[in-house]
């Protein structure tokens, strides 16, 4: 476990730290970390994953709340590239 301090918005730092857990220096998937799940109630993390995902074994888990069941998303399979680009644009414009 490691601790990192974010000087500004921590969303990108959190997602990049998760992706570093499975990436080796040559960009391949490390066998000791076969998959990574980013868990958050903030959908911004999933939007960031859509933009920067490089592996098919990265997932986003939105926890359930009351009667709402938890949901798991894969940025690799969830969206076509054109839809992903539209989501990134909408997110950028809406903040």
UniProtKB/TrEMBL annotation:
Top-level lineage group: Eukaryota
What name has this protein been given in UniProt? Uncharacterized protein
């Amino acid at each position: 476990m490691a601790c990192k301090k974010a000087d500004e918005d921590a969303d990108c730092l959190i997602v990049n730290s998760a992706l570093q857990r499975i990436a080796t220096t040559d960009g391949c998937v490390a066998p000791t970390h076969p998959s990574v799940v980013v868990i958050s109630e903030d959908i911004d993390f999933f939007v960031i994953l859509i933009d920067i995902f490089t592996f098919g074994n990265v997932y986003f888990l939105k926890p359930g709340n009351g009667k709402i069941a938890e949901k798991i998303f894969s940025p690799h399979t969830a969206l076509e590239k054109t839809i992903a680009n539209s989501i990134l644009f909408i997110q950028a414009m809406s903040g």
